[in-house]
Amino acid sequence: MAPLEKSKRLSTNMRYVILAFVFINIVINYMDRTNVSIAMPELSKEIGLSTVQQGLIFSAFGWIYAAMQIPGGILLDKFGSRIMYFISLFGWSLVTVFQAFISGFGQLMGLRLGVGFFEAPVMPANNRAISYWFPEDERGTAIGIYSSAQFLGLAFSTPILYGIHNSIGWRGLFVVTGVVGIIWSIIWYIFYSDPDKSRFVGQDELKYIKAGGAITDDDLKNVDKHKVKLNSQNIKQLFSRRLIGIYIGQFAISGTFWFFLTWFPTYLTKAKHVNFLQSGFLSSIPYLAAFCGVILAGFISDQLIKKGRSASLARKAPVITGLLLTLLILGANFVSNPALIILFMSIAFFGNGLATITWVFVTALAPKHLIGLAGGIFNGCGALSSIVIPVVIGILVSNGNFSSALVFIAAIALLGALSYIFVVGKIELKD
């Protein structure tokens, strides 16, 4: 009997509630990452920030976020998703509220570091919760749904955030977004538990989840404790030509994302002189385009495989196509009409969404005993872009001209595409 048919007859479907909770967590997570970019045009004038300082503020999150990935993962393994997510969500939300009371660069810089510190365990905690609650044959869909929250959530929350800013100012924006997170952290703590400890899950659903291959605490206890010892041979394998190719590609893909998450609102209001409130609604369109790209990427891959194309081509085609579409961001340098600006930006961010299905290459290219380490380097390259991209753009736009910044983003995207074409090359994936 098909798993879906079984699940329809279960007395509870608590795993879908958990998926909704994780989705909301991510929406709040990205809302508190992007609120500073919405506040920045007015905030920078009030406290006197240069564009270089703004770039440092935007990148501060990434510094500590990257540094805390391993410690955050260790704490997550020790305390679990319920406690760690509560601490993380409550912590970054409280720090967000404190941002409403800053008066200078140093204070804001320190608090953005604090946001990065508390948000570090978020993505591993999401994955852990879904791995505990979903059987293996439903997990891919669940991960796809919660992964889309960063784009879909921002598409709908961005106009709301602009509206809040327009009504009560940037200080009020930080207070409101922070309080929302604090309230939600308490709701999470009250209602979330792992399946074995949940009072809301039926016994039949619990059996269904476990029988389908969901991870349990017993599984983790039985995992081989043998640690991989790094030696020159392992390091050479971790930095093989093809792995270096996907590392470069991940930096490029993340680079476009971080432009939109940090500098895009300032670009619209300062460089293109779009009305502040209007820019709030316009900003949501590229996020919707990126969401469509994420969904379409999987569909394109599946269709190519059904038509007999190699799995390697099927997986690489959306990535390369997406990175090349990102080059169209340059079109915004030659137009002043807001509709045309958003059109070029939306095509570029749609391409960014297309290019996000890259984790499959880590599994395909890394030696099995080094997949965890290779994945860490791969993810670290994405985190590195959150540090580098905002700072470089801040330097490039110090003269008030964003044209060179868009050229920079396009150049990074082109580098990523060339890396997948020539450095990664043809690879063998299981069809």
Describe what this molecule looks like in 3D.
This protein has 431 residues and is mainly α. It is built from 19 helices and no strands. The chain has 2 domains: 11-220, MFS general substrate transporter like domains (Growth Hormone, Chain: A); 229-430, Up-down Bundle (Growth Hormone, Chain: A). The model is unreliable at 1-5 (pLDDT under 50). The radius of gyration is 22 Å and the shape is globular. The chain has helices at 3-8, 14-47, 51-67, 69-98, 105-119, 122-133, 136-147, 149-191, 203-211, 217-221, 232-238, 241-262, 264-271, 276-306, 311-326, 338-354, 359-365, 371-396, 403-424. The chain starts with a helix and ends in a 7-residue tail after the last helix. This is Transporter, major facilitator family protein. It is a multi-pass membrane protein. Residues 18-428 form the Major facilitator superfamily (MFS) profile domain. It comes from Pediococcus acidilactici DSM 20284. It is found in: Cell membrane.
Strands, helices and their partners?
Layout: H1 3-8, H2 14-47, H3 51-67, H4 69-98, H5 105-119, H6 122-133, H7 136-147, H8 149-191, H9 203-211, H10 217-221, H11 232-238, H12 241-262, H13 264-271, H14 276-306, H15 311-326, H16 338-354, H17 359-365, H18 371-396, H19 403-424
